[in-house]
Amino acid sequence: MARTLLPIVLLLVLLGSPIRGLAQQPDEANPPEEDESVAPKKYVLNPLESERNIKVGNFYWSKGNYRAALNRYQDATRYNPSSPEAFFKVGEAEQKLKHKEAAKAAFQKVISLAPDSKLAHEAKRKL
User: Fold this and answer.
1) Alpha-carbon torsion 55, 61, 65, 68, what sign?
2) Domain residues for 100?
3) Domains contained in the chain, number
4) Measuring CA to CA, which residue among 95, 104, 111 is closest to residue 61?
5) Whole-prediction pTM value?
6) Distance between CA 28 and CA 35 in Å, rounded?
7) pLDDT of amino acid 40
8) Which of 13, 95, 104, 110 is placed for a possible disulfide with 123 were both Cys, Cβ 3.0 to 4.6 Å?
């Protein structure tokens, strides 16, 4: 009995049973544009996350992976747009990667954020 039932069940599945049709329909509750896994990353003010990204960027920097360090430093500036340290690190990484205009913009941002700080003086020297 089981031997004859198995081919019948397989035939129904292959011919398009209602279960197969349901599996192929798009999920109307979560269309792709509202799916969080494909949505762009949202950045809210979070100084602690900014500091964490700077530390991770410093790790990559010490390993000589300047592209990864730059990505982390840029994330740090997005989490805390008023962090002169993060923008200074972006400038240094851009300099290492030979992106002169981007480095110049980052150093100018440091100067505008904290004009009397040690980082601003260092940024002026690098300009």
Assistant:
1) positive
2) 47-126
3) 2
4) 95
5) 0.71
6) 11
7) 79
8) 110
Instruction: Tell me if 114 is assigned to some domain.
Output: yes
The answer to whether residue 98 sits within a structural domain is yes
Residue 52 and residue 19 share a domain: no
Shared domain check, 106 and 74: yes
Based on the domain organization, do 52 and 107 belong to the same domain? Answer: yes
Backbone angles phi, psi at 42, to 5 degrees: -100, 135
Which residues, 6+ apart, have CB-to-CB distance to 8 below 8 Å?
A: none
Closest alpha carbon to 81 in 41, 116, 110, 42: 110
pLDDT tens digits for range 80-109:
999 999 999 999 999 999 999 999 999 999
Which residue, among 41, 74, 43, has the nearest Cα to 60 in the 3D structure?
74
Residue 13 lies in a domain: yes
Q: How far apart are CA 126 and CA 93, in angstroms?
A: 12
Tell whether 39 is covered by a domain. Answer: no
